[in-house]
Structures are given as structure tokens and as C-alpha cells.
Amino acid sequence: MSPARRAATPDLTTLPATSWQDASVPAFGLLPGQAGVHLGTTAAGQPVSLAAPGPAGSRIAVLGESLFSRLFALRLLGVGARVTAATRVPDQWASVGEAAGDRLVVTDNVAGWPAAPPAPPTVADGPQALMCDLRRAPPAGLAEGPWRTVLHVTRNAPRRSVFWSTADAVLALDARFAEPVGRLLGEEAARRTAVLAAGEIIVFRPGAEPDVLSLDISPGETALLTPGRRPHGTR
User: Fold this and answer.
1) Between 187-194 and 178-185, two packed helices, what is the crossing angle to 10 degrees?
2) Alpha carbon of 1 to those of 10, 12, 136: distances in Å?
3) Kind of pairing, strands 58-63 and 148-154?
4) How far is CA 141 from CA 87, 144, 220, in A?
5) Computed from CA positions of residues 41, 46, 47, 49, in that sequence, does the dihedral angle turn out positive or negative?
6) How many Cβ atoms sit within 10 Å of the Cβ of residue 56?
7) Which tens digit of pLDDT belongs to each residue from 118-171?
8) 153: which strand partners?
């Protein structure tokens, strides 16, 4: 730069201080991404996930068979969660236990859960998840707090259950669950459940349109969830 050019440059320290704001430009902000555990795909090809595990606790209520809790447990294990299964059918968790090792605990009650403080993935023991197929729903307070997921699956929604009345998601795995859906969520929810086609499930979330989807299940998951079968390549 020439001497003449340098002389024309103003001394920035002598300029008056001022604040600048353009009211026509909206404020900038960051919103959390819609992440979670993948469930399946709608007829339009849109993926559907459940927001778990996450920095906020999650209550998931499922009308269906206990098989779903094992499928969801596999997916939670896959994202780094430690899973406790409070179940009436411990033998049916054997294959999942072989794959999960010490990251799965099988018990017949929810007492003392979580055994370790819930934490983000890769930190300490990581997220904690409770899969429950007992007839009585878990206490709603178990899902209070970060990095914890509590799922209850049953064929009939318990009456006067705080867990079910405050669930973050309610799933119906078949059209035959329309009647308990109606008692829990009303006539319109029952009508939508009653028209599910074979293989479809429906997910209700507070304040959102329900999602109708088909579960996406991998061959490895099918092998682990089917008694007497093992994933390809194992003995």
C-alpha cells in the first residue's frame, strides 16, 4: 500500500460509538433437531422416530404385545443406552441379553431404577431406559429428568394411570386396540386406530397429528426377536 493510501485511512479509534439493529430482520435462534429412535415409514415414505433417549425424560405408552419392548430395547441399546427390562416373560429376553451383555438387566419389578445416574451418550453409564410389560404401569416420576426413557407396553391401558395420562407418545400396534385408545384419547383417536391396515401402527403425540406407519425391522432384529433363530454369522 502506498504512503498516500495509508494517509487516507481513518483512525478507527476516533469514530463515534453506535449501536446498530435492523428491526426488519427476525431474531436469530437455534432450535433442537428432531432426533430419536427410528420406528418406521409412512405410506408417503416419511421416516417416523420417537424422541428418545434425549436431554428430557420420555414416557412412551404402547398398546400391543411385549415383543415391541424388545424391539425398542434393541434400538436403544444401539444408540448407547443401558436398558432394564421389568418383565413377566424373562425367558423371551434371552436372545437380546446375549447380544447386549451387561448393558441389559432383566428383572420382575421397577424398584431401584435407574441403578446408575442417567447421562448423555458416551458419558459414564450413558442414557438409562426402562422397558416394562408388567400389568401395572411404572410410576410417572421415573421419567422425570434428563436422559431417561420409560416405556410401558400392555394390551389394555390401565385406568387412572398417571403414566398413561401424561405420556409423551401413545402407540397402538393394531386396529383391535381402538377401544382402549378411545377411552384414553377420545373418539377421533379411536376412529383413526380402527381403520389401520394390517401391519400398520399409529403414534399419537400431544398437540400433533398422529402418524400412521409400518415398522421397519432389519433381518438382524428379526433373528434376535424370534425364538430359536440367531443372527447370520453366529453359532
Assistant:
1) 160
2) 15, 18, 80
3) parallel
4) 19, 5, 34
5) negative
6) 15
7) 999 999 999 999 999 999 999 999 999 999 999 999 999 888 899 999 999 999
8) 62
